[in-house]
Fold this sequence. Notes:
Layout: E1 9-13, H1 18-29, E2 33-38, H2 41-53, E3 57-62, H3 68-82, E4 87-90, H4 110-135, E5 142-146, H5 159-179, E6 185-191, H6 197-204, H7 209-217, H8 228-239, E7 250-253
Parallel strand pairs: 1-2, 1-4, 2-3, 4-5, 5-6, 6-7
Helix pairs in contact: 1-2, 1-8, 3-4, 4-5
Amino acid sequence: MGDRLAGRVCVVTGAGQGMGRASAMEMAREGARVVVADINEEMGAETVRLIEEEGGTATMIRVDLRDTASIKALMDGAAAHFGGIDVVHANAAIHETDLTDKTSIEELDEAVWDVVNDINLKAVWLCTKYAVPYLKKSDAPSIVNVASTGSRVSYPMAGAYCATKGGVAMLTKASATDLAKFGIRVNCYCPGAIRTPMMQKYVDAADDPAAMEKVLTGSHLLPRLGEPEEVAKLAVFLACSDSSFITGASYLIDGGALAWRGVRD
């Protein structure tokens, strides 16, 4: 157990699984009091249980990221429960393929586009908007957003996902610009292929899962999928005072995928 976030209140969206769960747990290990925010109460409760088993402190608040009132209630509830908010980690996201198998630009249904935009981009802004009154009262406030390598390069059949993640990267810069006067730092990171439940579901659904995983990791200079726990270490760094002179930045955590134009054999 560390102390880099000792006493801090950290709100993590999408904390019921994957990178969100790993980040919530790592923040708790560093002394944070964690608000596990997820639409799935069962998975969120499991994250709380895992944190508490390790001696950490956490509570679960259900949030629907397509509902403005629900996002505001999350921030108000988090601040009421723990006495404030110091860190917001906007992690939750969705992909077109979670909703439909018709994901090309010309086939994508407008309703699917709207869901992806609401959860991946609009909700990140709303989380920031409704957390700011509480972050202003913190002596070391930080917002950590999750973009993607898809914010810098495009993926086939993922126009909505890439557009929203590109938006998150620019929203991060805009938020850092507007909120600097309050001492609120805003940064984001861009994961490559990480072994999350969402990614594993995609791999397992392939006709040849091993071949699909090879495709996903083919551009990684480090020849494997990343692990959520590795991403969580970066989230903690950006949340804590170790990154106190960093704001408006976007960090790649992609195994070197965007460092070159190649594909490994």
